[in-house]
Amino acid sequence: MVNLDLSGRTRLDACPGALQVHAAADGGLARVRVPGGRLTTAQLRELARAASGYGTGVIELTSRANVQVRGLRTGVDAEDGSGGAPGFADRMARAGLLPSPTHERVRNILASPLTGCDGAGTMDVEPLVAALDRALCARPALAALPGRFLFALDDGRGDVAGLGADAGILPVGADEIALIVAGADSGLRVSPDGTVPALLAAAEAFLAELSARGVTAWRIAELPGGPAAVTARVRAALGTDVHAVPGSGAPEPVRLRPAVRGPVGIVPGRDGRVALGVAVPLGRLASAQAEVLADVAASGEVRLTPWRGVVLPGLALPRSEAAITRLSDAGLVTGSGSSWDGVSACTGRPGCSRSLTDVQADAAAAVATAVASGSGPAPSPLPGNGRRSAGERRDTGEAGGGTLPVHWAGCARRCGRPRGRVVEVVATGDGYRVELDGRSLTCTDIGRTAAAVAALRGEK
Ligand code: SF4
Q: How far, in Å, from the CA of 345 to the mean position of ligand 1?
């Protein structure tokens, strides 16, 4: 029998994990899944120390609120027998960050970072994160999910529901939860108690659909007719535990919009406490910065966001001032309007062999150029190996910055591009092409590139 692979995928995904380390151009790359972005401060400290001890000393935050560490030595170290990558994985396991070796790469679960902290959501999804994670790891068959399969638990505020998850939930009424399939409302509704079974049913339906078609795909949306086929399987599997919205012939009863920025600054809470949103320039968190975050996190918990930032819940307002000062002094962004606001970049050189340039250093230089020309506040220096020298003044958090997000990429693949309308800055080999809405401008130096970016973002 000939298998017709309509998805275009011809191989299983090769997403790295903590055990399945990817051999990048700058050494081993390990990715650690952090369901819901939830870390205890003890886990964050352990990550920081392991990143310094085995890798480059930088924790990279990903768009799925996971973390990764680069520059690991692969193989076994003759001196202590632990080796870089195996030693790192062992430390993660002992910190409780690797609870299931078989399922480590499939624990991709987004959750609203501020859930339970303020009054914006209609349902606290915090307990669902742990429940989904446990249930996922308890089903051996779901270890076969691709490492790119994504769950999203939105608490009703609509911040993560639009981020393109394969299977997600969004509360839409009293005790009524919309099931999201392939980034859109499936039209199916479940009760709060039915959310975890419905999400697992969607994951199992995807695997069943792949098996039935005899094809390979990494995401539901890659399968022609995949969302409808998965939705039909979920409905059949759940029976009376799920119902379709009345007259749901409409393909998308609830419209979902991707949120393009995470919370930054003080977020008032409901119990006299506040949450503090912290932006991390280019998602690169130095070990020393991670230690400061752990120091000031009053609740013993930090929450990573899919916008490569962090939320510290449960701060007493009087303590928040001191926390802001320490975080700002450490080079993290604690106020809106920073020059780093909305700036992202792919890995680039030296980590990616495909890259035409050190794209993160260029993005940092462009931010510094924008500051020097008066269109933004002074940026923080990027943590790293000394190659990122642009911008030596700490971020003031004062007003400034652009309106549209901007994403820098070292080649046309544009890895990590945020969803939605984005200014794209793509390396050409002798400069950058700056693009938005079909318009593009080719620039051969950082000054002109920064000016073009500022113009398209609406800064000038
Ligand atoms: S966009 Fe290109 S250069 Fe950047 S990480 Fe992806 S493949 Fe590498």
A: 9
Using the mean position of ligand 1's atoms as its centre, give its distance from the Cα of residue 305 in Å. Answer: 22
The residues spanned by each domain of the chain are 22-103, 109-244, 265-327, 343-457
Say yes or no: CB of residue 346 within 6 Å of ligand 1: yes
Superfamily of domain 109-244: Sulfite Reductase Hemoprotein, domain 1 (3.30.413.10)
Q: Which residues contact 243 (CB under 8 A, 6 or more apart)?
A: 188, 189
For ligand 1, the distance from its centroid to the CA atom of residue 24, given in whole angstroms, is: 12
> How many angstroms is it from 371 CA to the middle of ligand 1?
26
Taking only the tens of pLDDT, the chain with its 460 residues reads: 334 444 556 666 779 999 999 999 999 999 999 999 999 999 999 999 999 999 999 999 999 999 999 999 765 554 454 558 889 999 999 999 999 999 999 999 999 999 999 989 999 999 999 999 999 999 999 999 999 999 999 999 999 999 999 999 999 988 899 999 999 999 999 999 999 999 999 999 999 999 999 999 999 999 999 999 999 999 999 988 888 876 555 445 688 887 878 899 999 987 789 999 999 999 999 999 999 999 999 899 999 999 999 999 999 988 889 999 999 999 999 987 788 888 999 999 999 999 999 999 999 999 988 777 766 555 555 565 333 333 332 232 333 345 789 999 999 999 999 888 999 999 999 999 999 999 999 999 999 999 999 999 885 4
The total of other beta-carbon atoms located within 10 Å of residue 214's CB is 11
- Residue 206, class by beta-carbon neighbours within 10 Å (0-12 exposed, 13-18 middle, 19+ buried)? buried
Quick: pLDDT tens for 156-178.
999 999 999 999 999 998 889 99
Ligand 1, atom nearest to 414 Cα: 1
Q: Supply the DSSP symbol for 448.
A: H
For the Cβ of 354 lying below 6 angstroms from any atom of ligand 1, the answer is yes
CB of 413 closer than 6 angstroms to any ligand 1 atom? yes
Question: CB-based contacts of 348: which residues, under 8 Å, 6+ apart?
Answer: 355, 357, 358, 359, 360, 361, 362, 408, 409, 410, 427
In whole angstroms, what is the distance from residue 433 CA to residue 445 CA? 11
Which atom of ligand 1 sits closest to the CA of residue 347?
A: 5
Q: Which CATH architecture has domain 343-457?
A: 2-Layer Sandwich (3.30)
Helix (H) and strand (E) counts in the chain? 9, 21
Per-residue model confidence as pLDDT tens digits over 72-83: 976 555 445 455
Decide whether any atom of ligand 1 lies within 6 Å of the 347 Cβ: yes
